[in-house]
Specification:
This protein is mostly helical. It has a domain at 19-141. It contains four helices and two strands, in the order αββααα. It has helices at residues 5-10, 22-145, 151-160, 178-183, and strands spanning 15-16, 19-20. It has a two-stranded antiparallel sheet. The protein is rod-shaped, with a radius of gyration of 68 Å. The protein starts with a helix and ends with a helix.
Length: 184
């Protein structure tokens, strides 16, 4: 800046006969006017810049508040989503547990039914075995009770054969031939 307030205060005008040199005073005043106009323009420009910066600062503050509110809402939403997911997972786990328990109960019931059916089958099998054994035993006893149809043939051969020599292939045993004994 060309002129400072100190320059204005210390400025001395040459004295002439009629007082200060008018041209020098006019020149100085012209300089002062130019400097003050420049300062006024600069001051106005700076004020506009300050106003503009203040407006931008307000916008940034407003934006900051909006961002903060958005962050708070996002955190609340995230927490709500986490809570909903936790509840949903818990509900799903409970449903799954219940379904598994139902399936286990059904499987255990089926196993009990199979075991009961098998027990019935085992009882039937044991009964059949007992009946078959009894039937076979009675049949064997019936067979043992039948007279030997070949006993008379064996007796006739024995009587025809020499007393000290048995018939060929027939050995007497309790009055029965060896063949009859084998058939017995």
């Amino acid at each position: 800046m060309g002129i400072t307030p100190v320059d204005i205060a210390n400025k001395e005008f040459p004295v002439r006969m009629r007082g200060y040199d008018r041209d020098a005073v006019d020149d100085f005043l012209d300089q002062v006017v130019q400097e003050f106009e420049a300062l006024i323009r600069e001051n106005a420009s700076l004020r506009e810049q300050v106003e503009h910066l203040n407006q931008r600062l307000e916008q940034y503050r407003s934006l900051e508040q909006t961002i903060n509110r958005t962050l708070v809402l996002a955190e609340e939403s995230a927490e709500e989503i986490r809570e909903n997911a936790r509840r949903e997972a818990e509900l799903l786990m409970n449903e799954t547990r219940a379904q598994v328990e139902r399936m286990l109960e059904a499987g255990q019931e089926k196993a009990r039914q199979i075991l009961a059916d098998n027990a019935d089958l085992i009882r039937v099998l044991d009964t059949l075995r007992t009946q078959v054994r009894a039937l076979l035993k009675s049949q064997l006893e019936a067979l043992d009770g039948l007279p030997d149809p070949l006993a008379h043939v064996a007796a006739a051969r024995l009587s025809d054969a020499a007393p000290d020599r048995p018939a060929r292939g027939i050995e007497p045993r309790n009055g029965l031939s060896a063949q009859a004994e084998r058939n017995r």
